[in-house]
Amino acid sequence: MERHAFAMKVKDGQMNTYRRKLGEIWLELTGFLDRNQIKNFSIWNADQLIFGYYEKADGAVLNAEEKSVKDRLTGEIQDTFQWISTPGEDMRLMYHNFGVVRENKELIRHRMFMTKLKDGCEEEYKARHDGLIAQRGDTVDPGPDSNFSIWSAGGYIFGYDEIDTTMERDETPEEHEATVAWETRQLGIMDWITNDVDWMTGECHPASRRLAWHN
Question: Would you say which domain of life the source belongs to (predicted)?
Fold first, then answer.
């Protein structure tokens, strides 16, 4: 299975129009996804940012006709946003923790977060997360994280996580202390767009919203 992601920024005053146009093309868009066996497609929003995630079979490519359909559907809504990622290309994968794939999503919750890297901090962010992968040994994680990836483009960070709720538990005091230490270090290289660490900083940011989803 291949995982893919894209990102864009909605133009000033165009969010309502973006949502309306997305609704207008949704039926045809989901037909396109089904025909091409594109799974677990979702679109997320915070502030004026849009993040999209989807999965498809290894090596699957669109034929010319389906590529034309994709381009036409994108054209229907493209005047409402500017691309952050490069169209047709993935963003840079900054971190991954791909565990056991859950076919049944009913007991899965999602976490989607957004941050903005401080100038010149992209490589430091990548190095810190490479360190986490090295600590884990890049093995398959049984959970609760079953599908966690972090992507970057245009100086932004976008995280997507599927979490098995049956395996979640409260942090121990030691784990909580480690979380606070990690997030405090991260504040030196990035600023939050979503509200993931408002509990720690006392700031107020918007929560990410899932605007659309199709399995």
Answer: Bacteria
Q: Full-prediction pTM beyond 0.90?
A: yes
Single out the residue of 113, 98, 86 nearest to residue 207, CA to CA: 113
Tokens matching residue 175: 């784990």
The per-residue DSSP string of the chain comes to -EEEEEEEEEPTT-HHHHHHHHHHHHHHHHHHHHHTT-EEEEEEEETTEEEEEEEE-TT----HHHHHHHHHHHHHHGGGEEESSPTTSPPEEEEEE-----S--TTEEEEEEEEEEPTT-HHHHHHHHHHHHHHHTTPPP-SSEEEEEEEEETTEEEEEEEEEGGG--PPPHHHHHHHHHHHHHHTTTEEESSSTTHHHH----PPPEEEEEE-
